[in-house]
Amino acid sequence: MKVIVVGSSHGGYETVRGILADQPNTEIQWYEKGDFLSFLSCGMQLYLEGTVKDVNSVSYATPAGMSAQGVHVFVQQEITSVDAANQTVHVVNHADGTERDENYDKLVLSVGAVPFELPVPGHDLQNVYAMRGRDWAIKLKAKTVDPTVKNVVVIGSGYIGIEAAEVFAKAGMHVTVIDLLPRLLSLYLDEEFTDTLTQTMADHGIEAATGQSVQSFEGVDGKVSAVVTDQGTYPADLVVSAAGIKANTAMLDGVVDLDDHGLIKINDYLQTSNENIYAVGDATLVPFAPTDGVNRIALATNARRQGRIAAKNLLGTKMAMPAVSGSSALSVFDYHFASTGIKAGTSEKLGVQSASVMVTDTARPKFVPESAGNAKVWFKLTFDPTDGRILGAQIMSQADVTANINTIALAVQAKLTVYDLAYTDFFFQPGFDRPWNIMNVAAQKAVKTLA
Q1: pLDDT number for residue 373
Q2: Which residues are in the Pyridine nucleotide-disulphide oxidoreductase dimerisation domain (predicted)?
Q3: What backbone torsions phi and psi does residue 64 show, to the nearest 5 degrees?
Q4: Residue among 428, 430, 439, 335 at smallest CA distance from 382
Q5: Scanning 115, 160, 301, 393, which has the fewest C-beta atoms within 10 Å of its C-beta?
Q6: Is 10 marked active-site?
Q7: Cβ-contact 28, 16 below 8 angstroms
Q8: 7: left (phi > 0), else alpha (psi -120 to 50), else beta?
């Protein structure tokens, strides 16, 4: 069997890895349009801040390493079209300008997404950057030590935008984060959390300009100088646009079925409308456990699961994609937070009735001093008010208690209730935890609201 995999990020990498694990003698052709294999944009902040020194190490794999396992790796070679009827793809070699067609038995599309470009005047000015991919990482790194950069404007307050804001604030620049939404990080956390984080960012030189719409970029001598919104003008020597992503599926129109957002329609087994073409990653929807429906959740964890499962299915082992809860985590200066599933602020949009309880406590017993790592913890549990089914949770602290969210993600997937969680067995040792885990405490509080 000959399998062609398009794209070398999380989903494409895991597909190749899955095929090698189950049927290593399969003929695999792996294509990457860029000149670098498998760059991980999720590791960009660590590189920009200097924790990781070598940009080339922010990768899952190398061409040499994968070739040694029998994979035919093609970098700087782009799949520009697919002929599903004849099971061929058209390849353009950007290194030498040649073109060719390749046949396949199975095709896996891990085409991902590209940064959304704001359709406003001035978007093509110099020093308007994105934060996705190795090329942008190298350019952004140079700007962190550029003495001409005093003011940085970040557009978008999702994880990528907040990471960019923190990078440049730590580099000594004044940073403004502009977002159309009313709160920073509002897609991930409710107000009890974002109020604290927004103040923390302000204390570190990051100004929040929320509830504002970008109208234009102003420039001087071809370089950006300011960002104009419907409420103000913000000086900018550099703009980092993190205003969302769009599916990179233009070449697939008419090849496989797409939805009205350009996302590839797939079944439970990652097959597209063509049974020999599979799709994984940010250009697809995933099963969403809290609603028993589907959702768009562009996370590496989901892409990797899809890649592994696509590999099993195309090799003949039928396996459905399990539902996920959209679990994620981030650090913002001294705070660490994580969330999963549905939140009070997202339940209405998802068409779900929910209730929540909030618990604040310390990470360890009261007698453990703060100097020993005993920090305040915020934990919010969201559940169905009719039957107590757990729908999601959020947690935050200056101590790293984010792993608790993995337990909630499993509870959501298993359809557990607050009654189940109220007395679930968790270990206790004063150096790590409290006699009642904060998840127990929140669930017990939730049970009282249902009585």
Answers
A1: 85
A2: 331-433
A3: -65, -45
A4: 439
A5: 301
A6: yes
A7: yes
A8: left
CA 75 to chain centre: 24
Retrieve residue 65's tokens.
């390493």
The residue from 42, 90, 123, 204 that is catalytic is 42
DSSP class of residue 154? Answer: E
Pick from 100, 95, 87: nearest CA to 2: 87
Strand pairing report for 245-247 and 113-115: antiparallel
Own/partner pairs, 42-45, CB within 8 angstroms, 24+ separation? 42/300, 44/131, 44/137, 44/140, 44/163, 45/163, 45/164, 45/166, 45/167
Question: Does the CA dihedral 208-214-219-223 come out positive or negative?
Answer: positive
Known catalytic membership, residue 42: yes
Helix (H) or strand (E) holding 184: none
pLDDT tens-place string over residues 105-148: 999 999 999 988 899 999 999 999 999 899 999 999 999 999 99
Distance CA 224, CA 237 (A): 6
Mean pLDDT of the chain: 96
Strand partners, 359: 379
- Indicate the helix (H) or strand (E) that contains 430: none
Q: Strand, helix or coil at 208?
A: strand
Q: Which domains does the chain have, with CATH numbers?
A: 2-33+41-114+246-314 (3.50.50.60), 117-243 (3.50.50.60), 328-450 (3.30.390.30)
Amino acid at 10: H
Contacts of 147 (CB under 8 A, 6+ apart): none
Contact 165, 178 (CB under 8 A): no
Distance from the Cα of residue 173 to its chain's centroid: 26
Predicted pLDDT at 379: 98
Which has the closest alpha carbon to 424: 398, 396, 401, 447?
A: 447
Sign of CA dihedral 316, 318, 324, 327: negative
Report strand pairing: 27-32 vs 72-75.
parallel
